[in-house]
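Bench log. Compound arrived from synthesis this morning; before running ITC I wanted a structural hypothesis for how iron/sulfur cluster sits in the protein. Inputs:
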Amino acid sequence: MSTSASDYSACTLCPRRCGADRRTGVGYCGMGAVPTAAKASLHKWEEPCIAYKNGAGTVFFTGCSLHCVYCQNNVISRELHGAQTSSDSLADIFLRLQEQGADNIELVTPTHFLPDIIDALEKVKPKLNVPVVYNTGGYELTETIRLLDGLVDVYLPDIKYFSPELSARYSNAPDYFDHASAAVEEMIRQVGDLCYNDEGGLLKGTVIRHLVLPNCRHDSIKIMEWIAEHTTSEQVLVSIMNQYTPFGFIPDSFPELKRRVTKMEYNSVVRRASELGLNGFTQEKSSADAQYVPDFDLSGIK
Ligand code: SF4
């Protein structure tokens, strides 16, 4: 696969492989051929090894190929709030975040703009003395992730679902786990074992995030078991998230998603992860609040 701008002409960057000509229209992800983002700033609400001093230098990209019915970042994923930029501007944004003291450059939901992101990273990588973090919902093609080899230092993928029924119901992606698990294995192959600086900041490695959903603890536990079986604690940290917030836009046909996760549900997943010897992070219940959704005010982009 080349990574020229022509990739946008019949796009197959993600598992949707919808083939959209994004120079004249948009794909399933809602985005055309111009990289678009909603915020670039220092962001403190990340795992302690990702935001350990001044905060991650986070760039939130607009659009998403998953469209989960309960999306916690709906304003940018489906309402498509954002400002257009370019690969040159992205390169400047990355350097500016570094100048501001960012602990890293964290790209959030970036894959549908990969040709421009690779272009920007190739321009600035020699000037960056902080790691590049790739934060993704996990619905990725292995061959697309392979294009990032040598450009990304830390992978921060979700594994959202194990069951095809669940991923079909909530994200219209029955093949989610097949792609996410293969992509995570490719990520680990690229960045290898976890490596930290003296301040506990992650320089290399993979952190797998999992957001526990209402009624889904058995699925969550299967994900923990897969991680234990297919990765080592030298390679991977696991972040078990408790911040699920039922926003008002969830359709009435998903009544089970209209409540928060109970203590019993969350703790049962954490307990199993601990029994399996997984290392990583848990979250306080107080994190389940809309105030933790960033204000997508286009700052740092325009
Ligand atoms: S990145 Fe967007 S346009 Fe490309 S295949 Fe995925 S959904 Fe379709």
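What the model suggests: The chain has one domain: 38-292. The mean pLDDT is 94.
ITC booked for Thursday regardless.
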